[in-house]
Amino acid sequence: MWYDDCMSAAEVIPQRQLRNDISGVLRRVASGHAYVITVNGQPVATLAPVDEPRYVRLRPVGELRTIERVTSAVPTGATLEELRGDRV
């Protein structure tokens, strides 16, 4: 169970404690602590620092490239009508 895996590395806190001290808990999370949040004694969530590389996916400006505009001899409306076929 995921709860058992988290227990060794995370402090367990009830939802009420999280609600009453959210700023303090978030400061501790930002410094590296992890928590298992419980409601009525049952684990419902984990609260842990963000894994930065998963979320930073922007490319530096130098790595961007220009996309060429595509033109066609067939008007877009005609292509759409052909694709719709007998569905209209």
Structure characterization notes:
The chain has 88 residues and is an alpha+beta fold. The protein has a single domain, classed as YefM-like fold (3-Layer(aba) Sandwich). It contains 5 helices and 3 strands; from the N terminus they run αβααββαα. It has helices spanning 2-7, 15-20, 22-30, 52-55, 76-84, and strands at 11-14, 35-39, 42-47. The protein has a 3-stranded mixed sheet with strand order 1-2-3. The longest helix has 9 residues, at 22-30.
Short structural description:
The chain has helices at about 1-5, 15-20, 20-30, 50-55, 75-85; strands at about 10-15, 35-40, 40-45. The chain is of the alpha+beta class and about 90 residues long.
Topology summary:
Layout: H1 2-7, E1 11-14, H2 15-20, H3 22-30, E2 35-39, E3 42-47, H4 52-55, H5 76-84
Parallel strand pairs: 1-2
Antiparallel strand pairs: 2-3
Shape: elongated
Name the beta content range: 15-25%
Catalogue the unreliable spans: none
Number of strands: 3
Task: List its salient traits.
three-stranded mixed sheet, 88 residues, YefM-like fold, 39% helix, alpha+beta
